[in-house]
């Protein structure tokens, strides 16, 4: 393709609202343009990258017998009302009415749509397991879209859904999909970690994230420095073995603490470590008040609390609500004499405390020498891991310490179980002729987000650097002066030879200065650049490998074979 015919509006200055490297470079290189906050046009170069990512996905999905199809982006609200998510998904859900005053949404994901389809079409276990998928725009009304394609209100996603008659079928499909994702990301050429993830609004019992380490990532990955353990910080676990104390129980007493508003203040007053104190944090979980106790040196992890309770919605409880129900405000809360309507959860570390201090549920007062069972009845089933792991602590396997890094979520796979099939009547007759709920999985890849994730990892000071497998073009031919007959001849000859090998070639035929051409070539980041300059008459050109920024002078007769080798080495 001739560059003079390509819509590639490059910029010389970084837009002021572009905060991260990938956003800056995708704008500067003419890959994307904003239409509204969190919504972008994908220009020709970006669309070529997207097409190649999608093709890799399609090939790997075909390898595991997944069926590609397409469902509407606009969905009737009844589907989501049937599953219960219409009321619980939150403000990110686009809702609107049509001219008949019927409620609709823009699909942020499509579990309900596919479950209803399977409920209508599949009646026997003999048709299962079955996996379907699509590649389609999704819509979420993000409160604060930012970082270019990393957090948007409209994005392109590959979403797949599996349906099985039994747990074994789900496990097999989940494992096949995990391997397919590994192949996809390996072929794309992005660095990633497969980590324990949070199922979040999708629900389900098991999930795994694929996260690309990058400074611009909004997620924190916690991984062991000695083993392969890795998890999203929301799900990360540290190593802990219960230690039951044999210390003599001291007498419970109450003290005045009018000026101690934090755990640190209280620790300083009593001259004891924060780990010996109990911290109580309150949440509204599906509308009910829940008090969670940890040791004072840890933070409560809301995701773990929500997952433990299998709740649809969780938020920090307003202080006014806490005061109305418990009788005290933040800073004076504790587990002793909580009202019956408050659910008490206790972190496993806090459950081992003896003679500990916590709020007395009276403003400005704390109890000393609290002990479980004597002063607070604590059922075993209310004890769990409710804390946020800390960097440097032992990882859950006990064989390494946790290290934190930032990451971008690029894929996520979930075992959903029967949450949606049960709600929407997706059942089949099993081999014994009995009705059984289909067991589901859900699997997503952020297709458009991958453009930014790759740019964050691969770009350098000169511009973008695309892996050969997904680059917009394979080779960039840059004649220094198209008015020079020899340079024009060699450029055209190279284009013909390379295209005959099945390569995609971009020829910079513009009447621009050499410096402009070279700067644009580095900016858009094609894997191979061939400069046709003063030695064209001798059939000698310069080949540049963009990833390493190395230049090799070679004869025309060597170019085709050399370029093929260089490209294959980058795939």
UniProtKB/TrEMBL annotation:
GO molecular function annotation: aminoacyl-tRNA deacylase activity; ATP binding; catalytic activity, acting on a protein; proline-tRNA ligase activity; transferase activity
PROSITE patterns: AA_TRNA_LIGASE_II (PS50862)
Gene Ontology terms: cellular component: cytosol
Keyword Protein biosynthesis assigned: yes
Swiss-Prot/TrEMBL catalytic activity: tRNA(Pro) + L-proline + ATP = L-prolyl-tRNA(Pro) + AMP + diphosphate
Gene3D superfamilies: Anticodon-binding domain, Bira Bifunctional Protein, Domain 2
Its EC number(s): 6.1.1.15
Function according to Swiss-Prot or TrEMBL: Catalyzes the attachment of proline to tRNA(Pro) in a two-step reaction: proline is first activated by ATP to form Pro-AMP and then transferred to the acceptor end of tRNA(Pro). As ProRS can inadvertently accommodate and process non-cognate amino acids such as alanine and cysteine, to avoid such errors it has two additional distinct editing activities against alanine. One activity is designated as 'pretransfer' editing and involves the tRNA(Pro)-independent hydrolysis of activated Ala-AMP.
Free-text domain note: Consists of three domains: the N-terminal catalytic domain, the editing domain and the C-terminal anticodon-binding domain.
Family of the protein in this entry: Belongs to the class-II aminoacyl-tRNA synthetase family. ProS type 1 subfamily.
Protein's recorded name: Proline--tRNA ligase
Species name: Leuconostoc kimchii (strain IMSNU 11154 / KCTC 2386 / IH25)
Record lineage: Bacteria, Bacillati, Bacillota, Bacilli, Lactobacillales
Gene field: proS
